[in-house]
Amino acid sequence: MDSFKIYRQQDIDQLVINRDGETKLGEKVVSYPSGDDFVSTAVLAGSEAKFVLLGIPEDIGVRANFGIAGAASAWRTSLVTFLNIQSNRFLKGDEILVLGHFEIEEPTDSSVAGLRKKVEEIDNLVYPLIEKIVAAGKIPVVIGGGHNNAFPLIKGTASAKNAPINVVNIDAHADLRALEGRHSGNGFSYALKENYLNHYLMYGLHQNYNNEAILNQIETNPKLDAVFFEDILTGEVDFNVFLSKTEGALGLEIDVDCIQHVLSSAETPSGFAANEIRKLILSSNRQFAYLHICEGATRMLDGRVSRLTAKLIAYLVSDFVKAQK
Length: 325
Description:
Layout: E1 3-6, H1 9-13, E2 30-31, H2 41-45, E3 51-56, H3 60-63, H4 74-83, E4 96-103, H5 112-135, E5 139-144, H6 150-161, E6 165-170, H7 187-193, E7 197-205, H8 212-220, E8 224-228, H9 229-234, H10 239-243, E9 250-255, H11 274-283, E10 290-294, H12 308-324
Parallel strand pairs: 2-4, 3-4, 3-5, 5-10, 6-7, 6-9, 7-8, 9-10
Antiparallel strand pairs: 1-4
């Protein structure tokens, strides 16, 4: 049965590699301060940590979008890497509550229709927890998983704030595919349809990988704004000026398939350099309602493997915490 595993201090301690004379982030992060088997908004609100880190290790949504399995592998390796960063003057660790991860069973029906039905169940599992975290005044930091989880993140955040939110998505793909059943390619379509998403900003879309129907949506829907990667290559585009198109709560989505040579179902040879994404996070002048890093993998079903994905995700999470403090 699908559930959420809350991490206790001993769960975190087992992932930290101790070394004399050094303090690792995992020795300073906060664990959930209750023995209950469920997450309480009141308990979260009582924590001094500003950020709540959790994982959604699944790739059902990717497979439901005809992608290659692998995104389920990113959470644990990224968490281990993150917990073994140095705790120092730049990032102490006590700003972060490591909450846990969702445990999601494979559907008995492995057809596309069965996978899409399962994604709906994942939506309903994820969004209530996000709503609790945001209602507690905390900032969710979520490592996926497929980009299908953008929908429950947006829904949970909007529900806590009692209003649609804005989102900026750094991505090669708009993920505005048809309302054909839930998958990793239409999370923003459903968020718009159900009025959880107000203004949707897309940064770094690739002209080659967004269909004409999506381009028509971007052109005609006043809620949609896009900067194409080709425009970034041929001219100066200021990320902060782009973000200034919105006011109010703003979620930050980073699909790592926009970063060149990062292991994912849609791995690309042409895209942002890792340091360019780090610079966007560190130099942003906006406060974000949440961070979602998705689609990355350390091991793909087709046999591709990369340990560097976990280290990249750890960099992005640590950069986000530093920039938002």
